[in-house]
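Budget justification note: compute hours in this period were largely spent on complex prediction jobs such as the one shown. Inputs:
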Amino acid sequence: MKTVKILIALVLAVCAVTVIYFAQSAKDSLPGLLETMDAQQLAAQDDKMLKARDRVTDALEEGDREKTLRNLTRYLDGFSDKLTFSDGVNRELMLFKNYPVLTAGSIFLLAIALALVVYALDKGKKFKKLALPLVLIAALYCGIYIVENITGVNSMLMTVLKKGAIYALIAVSMNLLNGFTGLFSLGQAGFMLIGAYAYAILSIPVENRAQVYQYYAGGLIQFSLPPLLSIVIAGLAAAFFAFLIGLPVLRLKSDYLAIATLGFAEIIRAVFQYEGLGPITNGSNLLRRFTVFSTALYPFAIAGVCIALITLLIHSTYGRAFKAIRDDEVAAEAMGINLFAHKQLAFVISSFFAGVGGALLAMYQTTVQAAAFTSAMTYEILLIVVIGGMGSISGSVIASFLFVAASEWWLRFLDNETMIGSFQVPLLRSGFRMVAFSAVIMAVVLFYRKGIMGDKEFSLARMIGWTRHRKEAHDER
Amino acid sequence: MKKLTALFLALMLLLPVIALGEEYAGEIVIGIYEPASGPNGAGGKQETLGIYYANHLAPTVELSDGVYKIRLEEVDNQSSNDKAPTAARTLVDAGASIVLGSYGSGVSIAAADIFDAAGVVAIGISCTNPQVTIGNPLYYRICYLDPFQGTVLANFAMDEFTAKKAYTLAQLGNDYDVGLAYYFTEAFKGKGGEVNGETFPLGTSDFTAYLTSAVNAGAEVIFSPTSTEFASQIITQAAANGIKIPILAGDTWDSSVILDAAKGTDMSVSVSTFFDEGDTSSAAADFVKGFKEWLNANPDKLANNGGNDIVAAVSALGYDGYMVALEALKLADSGEREDIAEIMADVTFNGVTGAIVFGENGDAVRDQAFIKKSNNETGAWEFVKVQSVSE
Amino acid sequence: MGAEDFGPHFSKGTSMSDFISANLPYLLAGISVGGQYALIAIGYTMVYGILRLINFAHGDIFTVAAYCMVYMNATLPLYLSLPLTIILTVLLGFSVERIAYKPLRSAPRMSIMISAIGVSYLLQNLMWYITGGLAKQYPTLPFISNPVSIYTATTKMVTLVTPVLTLVLVVALVQLINHTKVGMAMRAVSKDFETSKLMGIKINKVISVTFIIGSFLAAVGSMLYFSNYTAVTPTAGAMPGLKAFVAAVFGGIGSIPGAVIGAFIIGIAENIIKALGLTSFSDAFTFALLIIILIFKPTGLFGEPQQEKV
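Corresponding output:
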């Protein structure tokens, strides 16, 4: 039995590698294909056709795949009667259009093969704890990659997914404080602001600085750092500020802490808008033209790693200490937990990840302005945490995607005046979306206080167990 | 009964198809990227009205392969830079061939990357900050720019009020305000004047402290290029506190909101703008007459214009913006984004706000601005002069 | 715009009278806005004293009052719109408590606060929807909108009316709390929630009365505030609300005279900051003040020390 499984895995792996090989070889095939299709050199005589073809090659040289495919389709549709298509050409075209999807699919197959090998060698714990999650994560990332290549990088779906991933990281970082350590902090927007600004300031390419800092003669900083390094520094900057703020503020209790952190966020916003700091922060004006990500995998990868780190932290001894503080401060202190040190630790770590989230948000928005990081932003994130469930990481993640998708996409139809026949649907006009949305949130807060996940985590093992349990119960009946 | 209902519903679904008819070769979408809410909502609505009026006059465009119907797709960018990306994205997804807007420079800058990535040409209607078009090859603009407007107003302040000391008041983080104040300051100082400047955060409602600072600084003219929401506060509070320093502002203040605020007070309010309602050239006169009739025929539209039929300059610009878009469609002879992008720089149009020719960076070449002053008895604008830079 | 443009604007004058005439408007604006903050702050401090809840929606109730006035004044005469505005605002405050806070009475404190944030979010979005997001002009009220000159400064009557009216209302309120049965019940509940329940005090009634008084004062405050600063937007009340809360903490939460004095101090200090030319910090300053007071004297100026029970 074992050998069969390993054999199947081997076959899968071989298939996958073959497909990857072909897919990658199709990557650069387009210029040659264009030549082959236009065997009679008709384009040279037809201005319109030549122009359409040049658009394809121009977009290809720019490296803009979405544009290339769009122009290619127009070229093929518009001049199909003048082009020659052989079976070989058609196959190559298909390969060129789909090679990213094929590659992603093959990687997924490889992951399955790996899981199969692990399963064959050890059915029990390792499979559940290691192989299965690995396959799922690989599936998730492959899925994102495939969807991105089908719908285009900037489609609404991808836009929402990107923002959802970023908000997920920020919500989890807030949950670490509010849900796991029981510190009611409302300063998240301030730390995001620090992260976003630190990232933007450090990563604007030198040649763009004169234009961005137009009122400040190109600004003070005349170097730029690579994006990943900038993101880490953004997180560290937020963590450093959190450390300083935490020294006085963390001695306060519950709602006093909330209002003090809220106040700090406002102060940070004012400082970053101060004209005197203009050569560094560009005053209150937009920061833009910094390096941004071009694929949704980037925010997903960074948010994924960060959330994994937070999860590890929560399952460590520190995490247990945090929960003890949340459940009963006095008892926790009596057990020998250093209250202040642990609170400070949670606060600094949470702010680090909020800063990283802020940097990602800056990349997502492509512009940054301090004025946007208001307390309303913190409230939004707090509501996400509540909807997902205080003290549930998976809850926060799920709620982030739901929140972003609902507020920016699914409910948008509520903003449009709609006619069904000649009947005008009442209430629907600009602004109704947010009313409906906030009413739903109120309902969750009042009647569904535990949120989506309560303080539990999403767990495959439990889900499998649950369905099995249901089935057994059903069978008994 | 059920069958009847089903039949009825089916007919309802068919209705739009029938209504469209077969006389059109197809449909071309023009996106309207304007604020309908937030601090710039009032101005955005007036600009949108101009676009709709133009669409009312010219609902179709004739290309070589037939007549196309124009469908306007509107999205509210809420005057907010962080809401701009998804709003812009909505227009791109709706299949807009070309986009008009926005009122307010910040939202335009924030959306430029989205339009650029999708290959959509955007025509800025009244966003005057230079950064909108610099480095954004697909962003064009039909109005004049802040360096020009700031200089014009600085010249006017010196000529008309013989002012040597000025005070500027701008909203923190608003690219339009801060930019215009910057260029005004540069020009005013360049001519030997002295300038004190302050900024206020969004949500400010108490301007008395700022106005007092202006008095204490000995300012002879206040320059406050803010959005209309703050404008009326500034005027009423200045009047209530007996501050009689003349107030100067840019194109945003060319709005009936300002006239209402200044009416009955003894404040002197002057603005520079793109268009003068009293312009007697035939194109402009026709536009004013037609637009007023169109507004008065519909109470909703009248309400969006601020409850009266005073023609705002941005409505005239909105009208021109739509017409420029139609010219672009005709010149490209296509509704395809790439085709439009290719020919956009060559589009010219003789609009109600003057001739529009795109020059450097895709900015329209403009060399004069209209200066108007509020008449506080009649509550209307009075034409003062045409001011250009070289004086 | 370089930093050199932002010098201090006050004390430009050489003589004493110059100094006063240059700086009197700042002081007047400070006193007037301070009085308006005070009226909002009382609502915060009373609710906090009893429920230990920062009622984040209070600032929005203040804004709703302004919108009520705007819409009703368009159709109704003043003698109807004025009382109706107050009644509607009070009703709103009452129902917010009943719908959003009462069901959570036994829940953790964080839940009620989140509910308050939710209500604030809902009210703001609702106002946005109804008004279309555009600023509305507040109606001119007779008498208090009239101009008046004091020494060398001109201002609106409301600047003078506000501190007087604030003081009258506060004295009346203190009388109510100290000398009536319901006032005694309020004091009892804020001292010890559980015990007063056992003593037969109808907690829900007392809490409702608190919210009614708070909303009433917010409605009056809104009339004064918006007569001065006439543009009403859905978020117009958020910042005054937060500042009023800071004032309440500053004065010692639970203490009504404390809230009033705190509000006046914050109103005046904020205008001095503006006079110094540090305008971008006028809001931040309020919060800095809050944090300093929280760290060095958490009970505020007049607050009673509270023992956290295990």
